[in-house]
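Complex 600.
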Amino acid sequence: MTMTDGTDRDALREKYRAERDKRLRPDGNDQYLEPTGRFAHLLDDPYTVVVDRPPVREDVNVAVIGSGFAGLVVGAKLKQAGVTDVRLIDKAGDVGGVWYWNRYPGAMCDTAAMIYLPMLEETGTVPSAKYVPAPEIHAHARRIATTFDLYDGALLSTGITGVVWNDDSSRWIITTDRGDEVRARFVTVGTGPLHRPKLPGIPGIDEFAGHAFHTSRWDYDYTGGGPGGELMGKLADKRVGIIGTGATAVQCIPHLSRSAGELFVFQRTPSSIDTRNNHPIDPDWFASLEEGWQKKWLLNFTTLQTGGFADEDLVKDGWTDIAQRIRDRVVAEITNGGEFTPDTIRRAYEESDDEKMDEIRTRVDAIVDDARTAEGLKPWYRQLCKRPCFHDEYLQSFNAPTTHLVDTDGKGVERIDATGVWVGGEHYDLDCIVFASGFEVGTEQSRRSGFEIVGRGGSTLTERWADGMQTLHGIHVHDFPNLFVVGITQAANLISNVPHNFVEAGETIAAVVAHAEAEGATEVEVTAEAEADWVSLLEGNPMAFMGNMDCTPGYYNNEGRPTGRRERLNMSGYPSGPIAYFDYIARWRSSGEFVGLDFR
Ligand code: NDP
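Predicted structure with NDP bound:
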């Protein structure tokens, strides 16, 4: 295949390798800094005034730790299953998780609302558009909490300090920074993978004398404007720099471009920007959907996004597009007498990806006026090496005379000083730096959540998982009875629509808890054998990790560092893919046998 610019496939591979090699760093994930010192406030909650309350000392049936979509969906599913006395605990001042913390201008989700927003039918919600903005997503999170009475007794603005199993009482003892002691029969932990802000380890970062903040704690007092995308009037006479061009930056840069006196975008690696094509949802059409539609849509999207077949593409977006190109190529090859082998899939994947990335680079040329800027904005890697982005205003921003791309050619910002930043020996004077540098991924669960979980016999979850996650279904951990982890790993591992994982986890956990209650069991725990069997099933998966060493570095591939067993386990999913997992887990929980769990 020859690309639009005349490059052939071998030359393209060479270019991808060269671009990756420029970006590989020996320090990998250690290049990032935790917010400390002058940046320590980035871990605080600027949105809610904490009101004093007396410490709570109580017994509860289920403590739900984390009130993002993971906790909310599990809480709602527990309630639907008839489980009572469910207590949400979160350090944020309200429910919503990442949608509580991220209020940067332009924040929205580019997974379609019809499938991204969980429990639309149960809450009677009509999304306003195909892709909806962050405030609408946050409102939906609140609606789930209200519909299922999850605000009742919720301990918000409450940071957990410890979760310790007590064998004598068969209870988890949860302590908090508000002096609480909650004794819970069951605990669910859904603290999310992407919420603790990290900063780039750029020399001199502490020296900057101007204003600086992280995208997840947008400082509207300084910028003016608001999360609704209003013009940030206070930036009109400011020279603003933004460091990072990931999915977050792509969404806020058009707003900064409109508002700032001058905007400097410091880029290390360009994102791939496909079209978004957003449109409003017609309420009449929505009303005509048949009961049970959301499950159908969820399965349709996941089937198509992971290479399966369906009569129609209900969501029809960039996620399903690439998967269908791969699938169609495999079908064409087999129809023409070829064999179905891993090599067939690899070839189909490479050809589809080359075609897609060629389109994405061609789109840059079509939109961006200045040829040098356009060249800098072209991504040279496979689409799924990084989070694919979809936006109809990002590339256009670079046509504004006040918006400047500062491409660091993969090296990143050299240094920061009191008055600005250095790149390629050139100094950029700045009034304000916005860090769009992402969130901690791959560090220990205790560091990201801020607390340790101590199981039976005194061992911590961090110790248990020192060599990688060990679970049954990503949920149950041996020696941690009555505790349920809510995430995506070691289960479906469906990255394109994270809440879908939570819906399934919620139904599964609710079924287990309801069964324990019906049986009068005080403890439920995965057997060591069942856990080991599940882990070896996952390890037998040759496709366990979609990123690979050829990819440009990022959090999808351990920043380009070798991935050992620990990293692979921490990113593993069901070998036959998400749809097979959802099918498997539905049968597992509805059989009533709960194979692998010990109820006593
Ligand atoms: P990311 O980790 O994706 O991006 C961090 C950015 O900072 C990268 O561009 C990185 O460059 C850059 N960077 C790091 N260090 C330096 C340096 N020293 N100099 C210059 N640049 C530097 O964080 P995001 O907040 O953008 O996104 C996190 C995740 O949140 C996404 O992957 C996605 O899962 C989710 N998200 C989803 C959205 C959606 O639905 N549209 C919107 C926003 C976020 P490099 O690439 O070279 O490492």
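The two ends are 61 Å apart (CA to CA).
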